[in-house]
């Protein structure tokens, strides 16, 4: 049985005259890992702060666990673990002290999981927080959040300061949460990161949700961009299933750029191989590519 | 030197712009104080021989001498001499509060923000930040003393001349350099703005106390206090030049050491090295109040120790305050022993009344600092994870606010107890305990109502904390100068300082006591409710 954990309905937020959020709606169901994707300044952190009851919305409604986020923050918060986008810590406390404090303030204890996390993230808990780099501060918050046993985890661009190895550790931990049936809201500006961990995606730009749905529904987002050069002309590739946005880079049609569905890759490769591949490059699309290619200003909706 | 300071010019321009509002407010405050001091005194002196003699008499009383500094003994007094006697110490303290903050903002705070790390990576020299800060200090001080000179020249007090006005302006300029350079040095010695500003304020308090004690007991020794150097210039009488030279020389020495340290130290580190922290938290660190104790305890203990020292020093002055009546032969002739003792005691009590407001102000600052830390910690983002956790906003804000009230109350009580009991060990005629009761029962509610005002402001209009400083600062200034100038009673009654005017001679009135207690409660609740409604911009 799934229940709704977070429900945003036409959320708006103004800072004075500046409209930070103009229309944000989405839901997060139990057990779902929802990726909240958008470029810098899109309004991800603002949305998350409203969900946490730190900011008061200027319009629309926000409910978390079926309760109003602003009115009932005291009832909601004990069931949430949160990592802010920019982690700042008391400069004169050590990392270990801060982890314990954050746990205790949520009625939890330093447990075996905490020690495991400290080890796997390779944090030195003895150092004072002012000596930590951005990544290390992030680790302190990650360890405190991940060693809690709560219903909802909210991560605001959690991997921004982490090196690839720790990023990997983080992804493993999120997958563990998913197995345990926890709900996760994860904001990011990197499409591939969200794809790897999440089962649904909400895309926000300029304070507005422009696309949302399950990973399957947004399949086209994960199309791979391919640039290829062949020995003989590949005119017939335009009829191939799963090839989109094809442009030839020369009149002989031996150089081409297109995007491809992942499940059609095998077939496409076979066709290309027949033409003798001279050079091939594939890249995952970036968020900017997506915006450029699929959405004008208006956007599109798949779920709801 | 050339390469170490490259591009200091751009830093200077940026800093000037960044601090424009801050410095402008201070400049206006200083000029207002100077202008009103000069014109009030001039008005009191002109054409009223009796009132001028009265003012000089008042100023020679020990409590006033302790507060404002000594006034030279000359045959005939004019406005200018009295002006220098009243204003020099006072203006130097205000200026020091300004320039010390300015220097620490430009060096430590920016270093903490990571701004300097970014700037240093550009084509900016190692000591360019110090150079730019010093230049800003110099520019601000030159503007300040230029206006001082213009004001003094315009008001043209009785007894002034061009040379005297000029020297006064120069004297205040070198006071800025002296205290600014001290803050600069402390900033290079430590790695955080908190320690640097605490050390700077401690230094200021120490120099003030040193001059206070020596002014009362042994005026030759006032030399040992940097503030004393400026007293000893004797503006408008002796106009001693070389005392200013001494202060300049010391400033240069201090500045050079700051440069030497600044060009050799690691960015973000201090000379005093640091121990590693704990692997796990102490078992008591499990709530917001204990978190505050963990983060603010040194500040709190520092305040407590300063209050006790201040109390002990002031207490040991009490016999000097009384002695003066005794040694005055005229009093001895016309009064019997009982009357002399009574007169002594009333002198002591009025001295206590005067300093009670200073104790209240210090305790209120200690408490309000913690209250305002709530918004500061919010802005730094320290609290964002905690806000998303179980502690509610009410728990968080009430913890900061109550801790602030507690710190204020304890700092005050410690100071007053030290004052009273040290006083009684040196007095031949110890003060009865009921005066201690008067002191505490009036001043504790006064401190809590000041702090509660800070609480309400922090909850309702967190950006307007300056309102608190204006209210308390002007109240204190009115209180301190009320003995000298005839100020309307209504002005005095606008702040708690006025509500406890006759304490400790009499107890605080029931009415004002209830006003203070009720306003503490109401303002506290307003602060909590306001914080509950705030957008937490993290
Ligand atoms: N307190 C605030 N006052 C004014 N504008 C703000 C405030 N907080 C955020 N903004 C603006 O709202 C927009 C969204 O910011 P944010 O939610 O932090 O973006 P994101 O997290 O997606 O990068 C930005 O343009 C930002 O400048
Ligand atoms: Mg953000």
β content of chain A, as a range? 25-35%
Strand elements of chain B, count: 0
Bound molecules: adenosine-5'-diphosphate, magnesium ion
Q: Count up the helices of chain A.
A: 9
Instruction: Outline the biggest β-sheet of chain B.
Output: none
Strand order of the main beta sheet of chain A, please?
6-7-8-3-9-10
> Greatest chain-chain interface?
A-B, 45 and 37 residues
Our Rg estimate of chain A from Cα atoms comes to 22 Å
Name the assembly state: heterodimer
Class by alpha and beta content of chain A: alpha/beta
Q: How would you state the average pLDDT of chain B, rounded? A: 88
Global shape of chain B: globular
Order of helices and strands of chain B: HHHHHHHHHHHHHHHHHHHHHH
Which structural category fits the helices and strands of chain B? mainly alpha
Total E-strand runs of chain A: 14
The shape of chain A is globular
First and last CA, distance of chain B: 41 Å
Helix content of chain B: over 70%
Protein architecture, described:
The complex is a heterodimer of chains A (304) and B (538). Chain A has 304 residues and is α/β, with parallel strands linked by helices. Chain A is built from 9 helices and 14 strands. Chain A has helices at 44-51, 73-76, 95-105, 112-120, 134-146, 164-179, 191-197, 265-274, 287-294, and strands spanning 4-15, 18-29, 33-37, 59-64, 67-68, 80-83, 152-156, 183-188, 200-205, 208-214, 224-230, 243-248, 255-260, 277-283. A 6-stranded mixed β-sheet of chain A has the order 6-7-8-3-9-10, sandwiched between helices. In chain A, strand 7 (152-156), helix 6 (164-179) and strand 8 form a beta-alpha-beta unit. Chain B contains 22 helices and no strands. Chain B has helices at 8-18, 20-45, 49-60, 62-68, 79-112, 115-121, 128-155, 162-189, 193-217, 226-231, 242-264, 288-316, 318-327, 329-334, 337-380, 384-387, 393-426, 433-460, 466-481, 489-492, 496-499, 510-533. The longest helix of chain B is centred in the middle third of the chain and has 44 residues, at 337-380. The interface between A and B is large, with 45 and 37 residues. Magnesium ion is lined by residues 44-45, 85, 156-157 of chain A. Chain A: Belongs to the ABC transporter superfamily.
